Amino acid sequence: MNLPAGVTPGRSFGQVSKASMQSWFARLFPFFVLLAIANPLAPPASAHPHVYIDMKTAFHFDDQGRLESLRITWIFDEFYSAFAVDGATRSGSSYDEKFLSALAEENLKNLAEWNYFTEVTSQGTTIETGKAADGVSTWDDETGRLSLAFSLPLKEARAAPPEAPVSVRIFDPSYYISIDYLPDAPVSLADGSHEGCAAAVNVPEVEQVWTNLPESAFTDPNSSLGANFASTVVLTCKSGKS
Hints:
Layout: H1 30-36, E1 51-61, E2 67-76, H2 78-84, E3 90-91, E4 94-95, H3 97-111, E5 118-122, E6 125-126, E7 133-140, E8 145-158, E9 166-170, E10 177-181, E11 187-189, E12 197-202, H4 206-212, H5 216-219, E13 232-237
Parallel strand pairs: 1-10, 1-11
Antiparallel strand pairs: 1-2, 2-8, 3-4, 5-6, 5-9, 7-8, 9-13, 12-13
């Protein structure tokens, strides 16, 4: 793959100096950022994602039925996937395990500053999360797509009673990267005690979002455009869980 002048073949989120950035996501996708910095405040007609991620999330609970952590899986689009593995040594139908392991480690290191694009709240209050762990990069030779899976713990396990459900949104604030749930089994309740718990995925109507966005969403670099398009998972457990 031929990269633009000045760009080193990059395999992880972030190999461009922060001093050279005109927007925060330059540290994450050095190849794609060259497209964005030419027009950092894109007008509505051109404000759209350039990188696409399919996602699924598993909710993990403790033995008291409290949410303990999230297991997040991202599947990157074919274009970014090809870029990420460019130059890597193949091993059968995949790539070298050491390479994939180092790739996951570097990606999580760079994503930490942005809290892994993850927002966990309850009744409008932020629920703090810890450091991501157990990062794994895998390659699907059939689809030509790279994936990254990681666990994100809550700093303190959290109950989700009907009067105070837990909401999770995972998004790129700039909307340069589109992160959308897979249509089949996007969310699951994994290990731990979760009897009486349910997770509902609320997907915004994209056309309606575009129609109602104010001009500031495109002109203010702090507007968090991507939040408007983020799906929200609402976790609710029956009263009595604590």
